[in-house]
Amino acid sequence: MLKKLMSAAVLAAAAATAHAAPQSYEITYRGFQAVHDGVFEPDRTLHVTFTVDDLDHNGSYSLDELLALDSNRIAYSGSCNIIHCVDIFTWTPGALPTFSARYINNNGFDFTMQSIVTGESHKSFYQSSFGFRYDYTWDWTPATTATITAVPEPASFGMLAVGLAGMLALGRRRRAHG
């Protein structure tokens, strides 16, 4: 009986620790109006990953609980500086996050600017010192869809493996004594 109580306590502690850890999510937005072409592109996607930590344990997330936000190989997270910034971030699970992020890089040869404002637009601008340039804007529309999924943390796989091994050992023990 004592072993069962101790096992239950260990599992409860592991579950509480896992719940309190930062969690990563991936959002895929699909279907945008191409402002530069005036055409709706149903297969145009925007992938965004973000990591949050519910520091105040209220079940929703604000800018100060955002640990990372990445899209199109650009890390917008961290403190705002001259290159990248997340200006706004709010999210309550069960809804989609609202955020505004920007990236600007001028290295003397090239100028790159990207921005995302959820529900409005995402933009990509590039100008090289050799004259090459592109300027694209995609607007959100009522037809834009979004899918959000949790990204399992490596520790979650470890806890799953330990749990399955424990269940297997318990089953073998019962068969041996049964």
TrEMBL record:
Pfam families (alphabetical): PEP-CTERM
Xref: InterPro entries: Ice-binding_C
Keywords tagged on the record: Signal
Leader peptide range in chain numbering: 1-20
Taxonomic superkingdom: Bacteria
Domain Ice-binding protein C-terminal: 150-174
DNA-binding keyword on record: no
Protein name (Swiss-Prot/TrEMBL): VPLPA-CTERM sorting domain-containing protein
Organism: [Empedobacter] haloabium
